[in-house]
User: Fold this.
Amino acid sequence: GAVVSQHPSRVICKSGTSVKIECRSLDFQATTMFWYRQFPKQSLMLMATSNEGSKATYEQGVEKDKFLINHASLTLSTLTVTSAHPEDSSFYICSASPTSGGALETQYFGPGTRLLVL
Amino acid sequence: RKEVEQDPGPFNVPEGATVAFNCTYSNSASQSFFWYRQDCRKEPKLLMSVYSSGNEDGRFTAQLNRASQYISLLIRDSKLSDSATYLCVVNSGGSNYKLTFGKGTLLTVNP
Assistant:
């Protein structure tokens, strides 16, 4: 159990286009989902915390107008990278915490999405 | 000072060796601590939580020293399958839960 999926797993796009990444909890409900970004040879960095039915909380330095997060249901959160540029190329990973039966410390990670902006 | 710092590595060890990873954290209010492993180009996976009294899970032993703000992971009798990047992770957000990851230490276990 506790599977989190991400789609797409890999995307290549032209500079200036927008890219949407989906994060789904497949067998549990998640009130809270987290979005991370990892550049090569760097640590995972939390971008934002997404709560179902409310606005996401962004970390310092992350542009909320550029990285749009929607958490419309207990099993789905989406991250849209608007007007993507080459410097947005990275590995984007989501995680989800079960609504019940565990603290927020129980985070299940998705397999990640590799974004390459040309 | 970085919030979570780890041995830069990489570590190359033969099968059967014992290897230790060290980690320090800067936020003294941090409440919970973890070790994750991340295989190349994959998502991180929880290896074990770290408790104040120290804890063991098979060949893996984790220690926490709150006074020194220091965390360690010991792997005994290392296997080829232990080859991965080991991430020290701290909940630095308190009630506003936030995981802060170290850069990781790459371990390669050689036959």
Remarks:
- The mean pLDDT of chain A is 90.
- The first strand of chain A starts at residue 4 and ends at 7.
- Chain A touches chain B at residues 32, 34, 41-46, 49, 91, 93, 103-105, 107, 109-112, 114 (CB under 8 Å).
